[in-house]
Amino acid sequence: MSIRIDDIAGEVLSRAGDAKRFLIAVAGPPGAGKSTMADNLAAALKAKGESAAVLPMDGFHMDNAILIERGLLARKGIPETFDVRGFLDIIRAVRRADQEVLAPVFDRSRELAIASARPIDPKDRFIIVEGNYLLFTQGKWAELDGIFDFSIMLAPPIEVLEERLWARWRGYNLDEEAASAKVYGNDLPNGRLILENRRPADVTLEIALA
C-alpha cells in the first residue's frame, strides 16, 4: 500500500488525540528531503484545520569562527558542529507549550545562523522538528530519545543522496572541486553515520512525500 502525506497527517492526528502540544521529528541524512517533508506535513495538518509550525535543527549550527578555531570548518554538519545543549533547551521549552519560544534559523546562502528568527507560538499544536540528528543514538543527541511524540525517518538510497547533494552545492555556485569536497568529504560520510546510528522511527520512507 502506498503512503501519502495525508495518510501520515491522519496518523499524526489519531496519535495526538486532544494533546495541547504534539512534537513530530523528521530526521534523515543531508539531501534526504527533510525540509520538504516537514513543510508538506505542516500544510497537510493546516488543511485539516490544525495549527502547525516547523522548527529546523539547522539553526543550531556553530558559528564558522568557532569551527575555524576548532579545525572543524571543513566538516561543518557533523554532530560535533552543532550547539546541542542549546537545541535541547529550545526543544524542551517548546515541549512545555507555556510561552512563545524564539528559535534560530540557518541562512545557507550566508552560512550562518540568525538568532531568534522563528517564533513558535504556544497555540501551535503541532511542532514539526526537522534535522539530521533527531534520532541519532550517539553523544548528547541521545537525550532526544523519548521527547518526540511521532517520528519520521527519511532514508533514500546513497546514490539518490549523492545526486541531490551535487545539485545542492552546484546550486550555490561551487566549482566541481569544492562541490566534490562537500559531497564526498562531508555530506555522504555524515549520511552513512546517521543511517547506521539511528533509533527506530514510527515511519521510515525513501522519499519525502508531496
Automatic annotation (TrEMBL):
One of its GO terms (molecular function) is kinase activity. Keywords: Kinase, Transferase. It holds the Pfam family MeaB. Transmembrane segments: none annotated. This is Pantothenate kinase.
